[in-house]
């Protein structure tokens, strides 16, 4: 299974959106160089208030560009980086990957998938009503979060739009993604 990096984004300040960049540099154990969420311990403001010493399982946020097509059909315009992701992908069912999946981004960088991003109220602040588009229901009626996945950096490297993404599924029984 493989796909492509459509865009890369980062922001050094707390802001909902992240500007697109020519490239981003992933640093092992920390995240995206220069991004406000980089660090070995949690950097999300809500999570820091609860326990600032917990490990940062949200170093790199990936989102599938196919979501933008889906929300466009409902009347919303969203572009890469506008929902706060660092890496926008195409061609991979990110939400269907199991926990522990390895993603090779470009020539060197490798991230390990840790879980789902939980959508927050800031999504409706960005575009009123958009939250309902990124939270859906699965075939059994359970809540399905569609706002991307989170990962940690195992091997650093530079990532650019157009880079290939290679998927390596974990051995053994697969654990579905949960919110991290």
Question: How would you explain this protein's 3D organization?
Answer:
The protein is mostly beta strands. It contains 4 helices and 13 strands. The protein has helices spanning 45-50, 66-73, 122-126, 131-134, and strands at 2-9, 20-21, 23-27, 31-32, 60-64, 87-90, 102-105, 109-116, 135-137, 143-145, 149-155, 157-160, 164-168. Strand 9 and strand 10 (143-145) form a beta hairpin. The radius of gyration is 15 Å and the shape is globular. The mean pLDDT is 94.
Helix-strand makeup class: mainly beta
Rg from Cα: 15 Å
Q: Termini separation (Å)? A: 24 Å
State the helix count. Answer: 4
Q: Outline the low-pLDDT stretches.
A: none
Q: Biggest sheet, in brief?
A: 7 strands, mixed, barrel
Question: What is the helix/strand order?
Answer: EEEEHEHEEEHHEEEEE
List keywords for this structure.
180 residues; mainly beta; seven-stranded mixed β-barrel; three-stranded antiparallel sheet; 4 helices; 13 strands; 13% helix; 33% strand; globular
In short:
By secondary structure, the protein is mainly beta. The chain has helices at 45-50, 66-73, 122-126, 131-134; strands at residues 2-9, 20-21, 23-27, 31-32, 60-64, 87-90, 102-105, 109-116, 135-137, 143-145, 149-155, 157-160, 164-168.
List the helices and strands and how they pair.
Layout: E1 2-9, E2 20-21, E3 23-27, E4 31-32, H1 45-50, E5 60-64, H2 66-73, E6 87-90, E7 102-105, E8 109-116, H3 122-126, H4 131-134, E9 135-137, E10 143-145, E11 149-155, E12 157-160, E13 164-168
Parallel strand pairs: 5-6
Antiparallel strand pairs: 1-2, 1-6, 1-13, 3-4, 3-12, 5-11, 7-8, 7-13, 8-11, 9-10
């Amino acid at each position: 299974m493989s796909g492509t990096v459509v865009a890369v984004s980062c922001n050094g300040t707390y802001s909902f959106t992240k500007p697109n960049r020519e490239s981003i540099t992933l640093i092992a154990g920390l995240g995206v160089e220069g991004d406000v969420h980089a660090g070995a311990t949690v950097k999300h403001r809500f999570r820091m208030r609860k326990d600032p010493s917990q490990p940062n399982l949200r170093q790199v946020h990936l989102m599938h560009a196919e979501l933008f097509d889906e929300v466009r059909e409902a009347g919303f315009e969203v572009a890469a980086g506008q929902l706060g992701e660092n890496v926008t992908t195409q061609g991979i069912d990110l939400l269907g990957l199991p926990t522990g999946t390895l993603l090779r981004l470009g020539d060197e960088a490798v991230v390990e998938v840790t879980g789902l991003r939980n959508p927050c109220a800031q999504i409706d602040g960005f575009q009123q009503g958009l939250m309902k588009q990124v939270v859906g229901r699965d075939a059994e009626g359970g809540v399905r979060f569609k706002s991307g996945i989170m990962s940690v950096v195992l091997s650093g490297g530079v990532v650019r739009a157009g880079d290939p993404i290679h998927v390596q599924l974990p051995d053994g029984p697969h654990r579905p993604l949960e919110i991290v």
